[in-house]
Amino acid sequence: MTGARHTVLHVVLFIVFLVVAAGLALALAIVFAPVNLSLEEDGYTLSFLFHKESGLYADLEQIDLLDESYTSERIRSYGGISKDFGTYKNEVYGEHFRLTFSENKHNYILLKRTDGSVTVFNQKSYDATAALYDRLAEKLAAIS
């Protein structure tokens, strides 16, 4: 093998290594990244990796704690080992953003805004989701 071919082979192998490492890093980030709901004075911020949405409590038309009867069809999304997120659709809420932990199929928090957009999300466990919903409901009741 000539020197030039040997160098090209090393460059190609290095690029392949970088692509595989980046893919593995993203997969691990998705598995371990938390779903955070920050409750501020006038509004909220829901964040997960590259997804972030914020809004005012005044713009929330409805919040609900959904049970295991909530189902939706995947439209454009990622369904992984620990989380499902992306655009989903069902008869009740139409197309909506869903960000849920795969191991908790028992309860979900619904945020429906006055513009008609909907987000459904949960936490890793039933109790954590219910507690977060209670905190959100208390915050909304306090400003009403």
Average pLDDT score: 85
Helix count?
2
Assembly type = single chain
The total of beta strands comes to: 9
> Whole-Å distance between the termini?
76 Å
What would you call the structural class? alpha+beta
Strand content: 35-45%
Count of discrete structural domains: 2
Order of helix and strand elements from N to C terminus? HEEEEEEEEEH
Helix content: 25-40%
Mass-distribution shape: elongated
The largest β sheet comes out as: 6 strands, mixed
Low-confidence stretches: none
**Rg (C-alpha, Å):** 20 Å
**Within the largest sheet, what's the order of strands?**
4-8-9-7-6-5
Structural overview:
This protein is an alpha+beta fold and 144 residues long. Helix content is 33%, strand content 40%. The strands form two sheets. The protein has a six-stranded mixed β-sheet with strand order 4-8-9-7-6-5, with helices on one face. Strand 5 and strand 6 form a beta hairpin.
Brief description of this entry?
This protein has two helices and nine strands, in the order αβββββββββα. It has helices at 3-32, 126-143; strands spanning 36-39, 43-48, 51-56, 60-67, 73-79, 83-90, 94-101, 107-113, 118-121. The longest helix is centred in the first third of the chain and has 30 residues, at 3-32.
